[in-house]
Amino acid sequence: MAFLNEDIRKQIKGIFASMKENVNIALFLDKTGCESCEDARGYMEEMANLSEKISLSVYDLVDDKEKALEFGVELTPAIVLLDGENKDNGVKFNGIPAGHEINSFISGILEVSGSGQELSSEMTQRIKNIDKPVNIKVFVTLGCPHCPGAVSKAHKIALLNPNVNAEMIEANTFGELSQKFNVSGVPKIVFNEGPDLLGDQPIDAFIDAMENLSA
C-alpha cells in the first residue's frame, strides 16, 4: 500500500534536496498491539526513501525498552527525529504525521538537518535563556490546517534549547491522554502538564509561557 502518490513524492523529494545533514528516523512500534503501527512503518519507509540523507531505525517499545527510555518514548507509534550523530534534540511525533501534519513532519526533517528557517536573534536568545526542563505537548488532529504551525514552532524551540523537548500528539489516536488534558479544540499546547495555549499562537507566546513556568 502506497501512502504518497507520485506527485507528492516528487514534491517532497525536491524539498528534501535542501537538507544539509543526515537525519535518522527512530520509529517505535509495539508488537503487543498498536492499531496504527504497521501504517506508521509503511509511511516512514516511504519517507526515508525520498532522500539518501534520511535513514530509518525501527524499535519495539518492549524489546528495546532502554532505547525507548533514552528517547522518552511511552506511546506508539512514536517517531523521534535524530540528527546525523543519532542525537535526540527533542523532536517527537506521537501518532502518524499524515494529513496536514505531513507539513510539520517535513519541517521537522529540514530543521533537524540544519536547513530550517532562522529566528530573530532576540527570540533565539530568549529561547536559549530557558534554564528549566520544559516539555511541550501539542495536541493535533490530522484534519486541522492550523496544527502544523504550532507543532513546528514547538520543535524549533526544542532544537534551540536542550532543556526543551516537544512532541506532537494525535488527539484521536491517544484519546485517554486527550481527555486527561481536556482537549476540546486543537491545536492545544500544554507546557509541563500545566499551563496551556489554544490555537496556532505566535512563537513569542510559546516563549512567554515557558518564561512564566515555575521552577
Descriptive report:
- The chain is α/β, with parallel strands linked by helices.
- It contains eight helices and eight strands; from the N terminus they run H-E-H-E-H-E-E-H-H-E-H-E-H-E-E-H.
- The chain is globular.
- The protein starts with 5 loop residues before the first helix and ends with a helix.
Query: How much strand?
Result: 15-25%
What topology, given as strand order, has the largest sheet? 2-1-3-4-6-5-7-8
Biggest sheet statistics? 8 strands, mixed
Give the low-pLDDT segments.
none
SS class: alpha/beta
Rg over CA atoms, rounded to whole Å, is: 16 Å
H and E string? HEHEHEEHHEHEHEEH
Q: For the terminal residues, how far apart are their CA atoms?
A: 48 Å
Could you give the count of β-strands?
8
Could you tell me the mean pLDDT? 96
Discrete helix count: 8
- Tell me the helix content: 25-40%
Overall 3D shape: globular
Topology:
Blueprint: H1 6-16, E1 23-29, H2 37-48, E2 54-60, H3 65-70, E3 78-82, E4 88-94, H4 102-113, H5 121-128, E5 134-140, H6 147-160, E6 164-170, H7 175-180, E7 188-191, E8 196-198, H8 203-211
Parallel strand pairs: 1-2, 4-6, 5-6
Antiparallel strand pairs: 1-3, 3-4, 5-7, 7-8
Helix pairs in contact: 4-6
Summed up:
This protein is α/β, with parallel strands linked by helices and 215 residues long. The chain has helices spanning 6-16, 37-48, 65-70, 102-113, 121-128, 147-160, 175-180, 203-211; strands spanning 23-29, 54-60, 78-82, 88-94, 134-140, 164-170, 188-191, 196-198.
